[in-house]
Design goal:
The chain is α/β, with parallel strands linked by helices. It has ten helices and five strands; from the N terminus they run H-E-H-E-H-H-E-H-H-E-H-H-H-E-H. Helix 1 (29-53) runs parallel beside helix 10 (232-250) and helix 2 crosses helix 10. The protein is globular, with a radius of gyration of 20 Å. The structure holds adenosine monophosphate (AMP) and magnesium ion. Residues 91-94, 122, 126-127, 130-131, 136 line the site of adenosine monophosphate.
Length: 267
Amino acid sequence: MKTWRIAPGSSVSLDSLPTRSTDGAPGGKKATKAALTELTQQISDLQERLWAEHKQSLLVVLQAMDTAGKDSTTRAVFSGVNPQGVKVASFKAPTSTELDHDFLWRIHQTAPARGGIVVFNRSHYEDVLVVRVKDLAPEPVWRERYGLINAFEDQLRHGGTTVIKFFLHISKHEQAERLQARLDEPTKLWKFSANDLTERARWDNYQRAYQEAIEQTSTKHAPWYIIPSDRKWYRNWAVGKVIADTLEGLDPQYPEPTVLDPDLKIV
Ligand code: AMP
Ligand code: MG
């Protein structure tokens, strides 16, 4: 996990962090896919224990440029997990009702309850990313949010929630190929939006916004992991590995059985 984890207070240069590396993988594509299958089984078992224990919860934040694979990573990592135990929350541009509240209002409502796992497909981080890049709020407003986000995530921790955050790191070149594939393949065309090109044109601004957001909010208890994501099989395995190890660290326990009446009979 250390390969990808951003230590608190370190400076981040996305340009110099790899997008195609397969560092630490258990082997090539085939072996790594097989390893992911084992990880998903492990995640499934741990999820069940987490649910039974009903004390702690896990929040997984996924952030990335378009096409980096937030959806497919979720699918790959949580396949085989009881659908009751995992929820996915996707955050789009805020509605007018949401905009009438503070930026964390809609977020807090979808945070996991005890025993649960929630995956954020985009998150409160959009409020220091897209909001910054598209100038949707003045700089002093979004800048103050780094501290507010850290305090919020600490509040979640106080309530028993462990927060881990992933940036799926792809190269600009890889994004071009994936956008082109969406245009070329009829079954992928639905994913394409002209807005993707507008956002792509702001690539450098987004990278800068990501860098600073990660620097400001990678904390001991709510760390960022930057995952090389040009190779999908490596990306899926790496995210699965961090999630499995994190759940393992929570060490959820089945509750002690209550002492039953020895004469109890099912009639
Ligand atoms: P998609 O993930 O492709 O469905 O797109 C969702 C869109 O919602 C993206 O363009 C995000 O930038 C946008 N979005 C998400 N959260 C916010 C936010 N807090 N403020 C403005 N736009 C947002
Ligand atoms: Mg999109």
